[in-house]
Design a protein that fits this description.
Blueprint: H1 3-12, H2 14-30, H3 33-36, H4 39-55, H5 58-75, H6 87-98, H7 105-112, H8 115-134, H9 142-147, H10 155-202, H11 207-223, H12 226-235, H13 238-253, H14 258-272, H15 278-282, H16 287-307, H17 310-321
Helix pairs in contact: 1-2, 1-17, 2-16, 4-13, 4-14, 5-13, 6-11, 7-10, 8-10
Amino acid sequence: MDSDILVQKLRQEPEHLRSLVALAVDDLLERPVEALLDPEWLGQRITAGFRASTADPQTKDWIRARLDDARKRLDRESGPLLYKVPTQLVNPIKDLLRRPYEPDPVVLRALIDHRATRGLFRDVLTHTLTDYAKTLKMPEGAAAAIKSTPLGRSRLAAWAGAAKVAAELVGSEVEKRMEGRVQAYVDKAIGHAIELTVEHACDPKNIPAFSDMRADAVDVLLALPVETWRKELDRQDLDGLIDDLHATLDAVAHSEAFEEQVISALRLVAQEGQGQSARAFLAGSGLEDTWRESLEQILQERASDFVQTPAFEGWVRDLVRD
């Protein structure tokens, strides 16, 4: 066949490329899993690529550029997120968060009993008890009520007035001592407060309430305007965040166990598919049905673009001429 006719057919009759792509995908699916997946080789390549990426100084610039793009998109938005996130996405997330969950008391206690939590309980209990103690005084109308009675006109009333003056003089010192006693009591009560929190969170009768709280949190967050999220983002030290993120990725990539963990995961996949074709391994998962059409479409689009290039035309001419 003449090279011009071959190039013309591939460019103007897309069914030829479509059938070629389908043949290539069929060939891929019929190959054994172990032939497609070499855990050692692929694991080493993934590790090497990941390490090279984290070692490249441009990686941080790439991360910063992505964050800058996200920030610029926020600048163009306004109003609550509720109208910007598809309902088809929100409802499944809320259903997932609403699933009943009864935490393990041992795990929850280990997470809650932290110096930050103890500091929070300390402040809450201290302020609550101190404010309550300050209210334990004679009501404002009590003095007037006493004066209106025979008792109020007696010598005892005068003594009571003197006692009031004395109480005002020593009041600040009493409050200081009271605050010290409150602080000592609170320090002892924090552990009990943590235990009560764990018991409440793990009590089966409270599971529905916590499930609703998790789901309702989605509505609360989506009701916040974009401007609020933008302010929260601006509160962050983005340069420091990028440095920390890059350092984390670099630490993971260069950890001694990383390559072996990747290889082990790939080995597990290869073992599960041992002796099966890729098609048989995917049978029942629905993955072939869902991704094959998209994969063939992408491959065909790329192939269609490629056959339009002068480089492809020159390659065909050389091939036919030889």
